[in-house]
Amino acid sequence: GVQLLESGGGLVQPGGSLRLSCAASGFTFSKIYMSWSRQAPGKDLEWVAGIEAGGDGIWYAKFVNGRFNIYRDNAKNMVYLDLSSQQVQDTDMYYCAEGNAGVRGPGTMVTVSS
After folding, report:
1. pLDDT tens digit string along 34-61?
2. Using CA atoms, how far apart are residues 47 and 65, in angstroms rounded to an integer?
3. Is residue 54 within 8 Å of 71, Cβ to Cβ?
4. In the prediction, which pLDDT does 19 show?
């Protein structure tokens, strides 16, 4: 079955950067739209970014405001999310998913704090 595993989260200071990675298996990755979402405790899941199967179509949530970059490597079955100019309010568990609302991985925690 579909398996997704995120990594790369951690503690970063405001204004800092992180690279999140998601390893995918169990499906034809190169044919599937992938996305990143995030969720804070007690809050709803919030969509962050999506990327088409071939990598040509990319979309971001309005709050990203040019600070994040989603990309993928279909040869490695990987999708990435580069976070930059991070703000305290970016503190969340970040998930990659098949589609926008499909199977998600266990998530990787990003904490932005001084």
Report:
1. 999 999 989 999 999 999 999 999 999 9
2. 14
3. no
4. 98
